[in-house]
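Entry 14. Structure prediction run on the chain below.
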Amino acid sequence: GTSRRASRVRERTMRCASALARASAPLNACARRTGRGARARDAVALKRATVGVRRTIEIESIRPRTAARARASVATRASSLDDDVVVVPGDYRVGGVLLGVALLTGPALHLWTQFLVHGVLGGFLAFQASRVRFRFTRTDLEVVFIEPGADDSAALATDVASSGDNKLQGGGENRWAYDTITNWEFWWPGFPCLVYFKETQTKSDGQPHFFPIIMDGKMLYEVMLSRLPPSQNEKPSPSEWSLDLALEQTQIGRQIKENLNEDQLRQIKEMKGFPVLDDK
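Output returned:
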């Protein structure tokens, strides 16, 4: 054991001596030129050569345990980058509501055309909710596909290519830089069903995108508020979400409110989300 340690010390000493020898040429050249009439560039060269030798000695003499700690520190910083990536989990409310309407219109009311339409659409959106994920990085909004039923964390390592080419909405991969998004809308705060944004990355004159909200609507809204450029229309705080606010967003909703009495108006102001499904 003692002989091995001595061998390692001799090896490090030889490496340092070799480094000093490699650096001696510029040092000697600068020393010959340095004198009473030395020019400024000689002094600068001397300083740089000295710093280079010092760094070489430090690197060559670093202990293995110190190197291991340095590698661990780099790995920790790399993994912390995931903290800047937000994956919005799937949500089955829109699909579930459509399937509920299908059950009501079909077996209950015998409206089989409506049953078929709502059932197919509800089933499709429920399936998409199990695999489509919105991912927000430091600079981009991305759409990725995971295996149905997989944990949402799987979306962190999934490539954008998994969602294919967005041919229905302008083409290209499903990744858009935040600074290319010129406007976004959310229908409706409190009862989210549809999200829209327009970007200039796909087309210079602007490409609109529409997505059914098959993910956590409130979380999606909060992340869009914090990371996307401001919408052209002022957006309310999530704490203000209610059925009353959702109805105010459309002409039909405002007409519905006009036919409600004071007690009903109070109730819709207190309703903060889907009954049973939402805590608030």
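Residues 195 and 211 are 5 Å apart (CA to CA).
Filed with the rest of this week's runs.
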